[in-house]
Amino acid sequence: MRVMVTGGTGYVGAWSVKALVDAGHKVRLLVRDPAKARTMFAALGLPRLPCVTGDMTDEVAVLKALQGCDAVLHCAAVVSTDPRRADEMMAANPRGVELVIGHAVRLGLDPVVHVSSVAALLRPGMTEQLKADLPLGTLDSGYARSKAAAERCVRDLQDKGAPIVITYPGSVTGPAAGRVISEATEGLAQTVAMGSLPSPDAAWSIIDGRDLGAVHAALMVPGLGPRRFMCGGTYLVPADLSATLERITGRSFKVLPMSGALLRGIGWAADAVGRVFPIESVLSHEAMVCFTQMPPSDDLPVRRELGVRYRKIDVTLREALLAARDAGLLTEKQVGKLAKKQAPR
After folding, report:
1. With contact defined as beta carbons under 8 Å apart, do 208 and 311 qualify?
2. Rounded Cα gap, residues 295 and 298, in angstroms
3. Which residues neighbour 183 within 8 Å (Cβ) at sequence distance 6 or greater?
4. 247 Cβ contact partners less than 8 Å away, ≥ 6 residues apart
5. Sheet holding 51-53, edge to edge
6. How far is CA 96 from CA 7, 137, 210, in A?
7. Could you tell me the mean pLDDT of each successive run of 10 residues in the chain, 345 residues long?
8. Which of 67, 73, 148, 292 lies 20 to 30 Å (CA to CA) from residue 141?
9. CATH topology of domain 2-174+205-233+296-310
10. Which residues have C-beta within 8 Å of that of residue 276, sequence separation ≥ 6?
């Protein structure tokens, strides 16, 4: 199939593009910087891919990129924890869906794949398992509200029978895509640098970028109608993550006795400061809600219907730490017995 991809120079998009090309699909990219795309995909061993210059809010560029394609993978989004960028996200993310997904449906592309997030389904205090048929969540950050507005449009089209497939990834990490690492990798590096996990109430859903790419490639089958898939990945509580990091690095990681309520309060305070001062912090209230109230997700349909099996978490985290080290986020001492290892190429 000929697949148009937005967000291809981001972490998720890059691994998805590689999976699509490796599966034999022809990819066309909608990108703001074709030179960056060429450099990134050369590092991933891919040939030069055709590009249309523009972004998801540029209707002329979107239509040009979609012309002659069979399917679309919409990975692009404006992502920020800065409260002052809320209006920007509310303008861009729903508009991107309206143009990319809306025009793809009108042109008859099938499938039309929209990349969402587990955060789109979260509600503060929820305890039930995350499933793809849940209603949209109620997180209130600018990013969460923009994604919810975008997804309402997508779900409305699904309800009308449009062949849209939605994926809900968890924290995406793993090896670098060229020189690009994920936000989740940056957060993992901070944890490893501290040598401790901040709360017994925390939990992580971690998926390898290559596995998410494999999911997106497996979805490129027409005629199956609207579908949704949880892609949370491996669910880890603090004892699990601590033990995994100890196996990988040989270092000891303690769990600090900070309550989830305290961390959420810190996140709320960070948001308040961010509305006044030009800072962008990982300690947002939304991030702390996700961090301390994340339930496991039901990813069984990924294996049962798509035949995709996730890598072992040790492999994913080992390669993520090597990527963080090579990016200068961790020292040789901090990665422990990984110090003499080379990142995969």
Report:
1. yes
2. 10
3. 11, 79, 282
4. 314
5. 51-53, 26-31, 2-6, 71-74, 112-115, 164-169, 227-231
6. 11, 20, 25
7. 97 98 98 94 95 96 98 91 78 92 98 93 86 88 79 95 98 96 93 88 93 99 98 95 96 85 77 69 68 88 98 98 97 93 73
8. 73
9. Rossmann fold (3.40.50)
10. none
Q: Is the pTM of this model over 0.70?
A: yes
Query: What does the block give as tokens for 340?
Result: 């003499």
Q: Could you tell me the two tokens for 275? A: 């509305």
For every residue of 266-326, DSSP letters joined together read HHHHHHHHHTTSS---S--HHHHHHHHS---B--HHHHHHH---PPPHHHHHHHHHHHHHH
Q: Residue type for 254, please?
A: K
d(CA 82, CA 130) in angstroms, rounded, equals 27
Q: Give the DSSP letter of residue 220.
A: -
| Residue 215 near residue 306, CB atoms below 8 Å | yes
Q: How far is CA 273 from CA 81, 101, 142, 277, in A?
A: 12, 36, 15, 6
Q: Tens digit of pLDDT for each residue in 142-175?
A: 777 788 888 999 999 999 999 999 999 999 999 9
Per-residue tokens: 35 = 């030179």
Which H or E element spans position 236?
strand 234-236
| Residue 19 near residue 216 (C-beta atoms within 8 A) | yes
